[in-house]
User: Fold this.
Amino acid sequence: MKKRILSVLVGAVMCLGLCGCGGGESNSNVNGSVDNSGANSTNNNSSADGDSSTPDNNGGETDWDYIVNKGKLVVGITYNVPMNYQDDSGELIGFETEFTKAVCEKLGVEPDFQVIEWTKKEFELNAKTIDLVWNGLTVTDERKENMLFSKSYLKNKQATVVKAENADKYPTTAEMGSITIAVEGGSAGEDVIKNDEALKGCTKVSMEAQKDALLEVKTGQADACIIDFTMAKAATAEGTDFADLKVLENIQNTDEEYAIGARLGDTETIAKINAAIDELAAEGKLLEIAKKYNLDDALLIGA
Assistant:
């Protein structure tokens, strides 16, 4: 995480291009060997009406039956440091990666990581090309209408990132109304632009992933990007190839929470995941993995 973050992200961009994770193409499998440790969780987020014990149209099979019969839990992700990303050898690592592996071990199923286009995450869930969205997923009221959430396990907020040399130009968002801002399509960062009157006049550039938004600023194609603070902090840390970028600490956005998203009504799977999260937190695995990825100060449970 400390020294080759740019090469990791550029490699991820190339991988995504080869895998064709966008419009109508098959999702790309990015499974890699990952340490079986990690965990997390907290407060109940959203309980959708309905019971996952209610069968679907496939011979009375519930969502959990469907997962167990496959023997694997298909998890939709994007490349997102420090959540899910590839190291120099191409191995998939990260906080969410290890967390997923640990929960799946508790549940007795294998994780199957699939790169998805973030704007299509709800569609992927409903089409059953994935079983969960588990990749720094921010809980919002709008998303609660389309998916069922697990307990929240990590706190987050949106961060505005610019080149360090330009940081003094933007004491508030009022000075950003005419600049170019890159965001991940369908993200909480995009919501910031929608909800801030001062940003209504900016030129918004929607990218497939947060890493792409960061690269737009790095290469000068955008003046700023709005991405998850967890990623911004890791990517711009001292000693990284993005140390010439800076998070604008003077621009504060609303606190958020991360949780895991499942299909509406799939209360059985979410209940099992929540129980596994509680076990991992009680065992101290959550804190162990969070410390490994410098996220222990963001934990909502097990700290």
About this structure: The first strand starts at residue 28 and ends at 29. The CA atoms of residues 58 and 66 lie 9 Å apart. The radius of gyration is 19 Å. The first helix runs from residue 5 to 19.
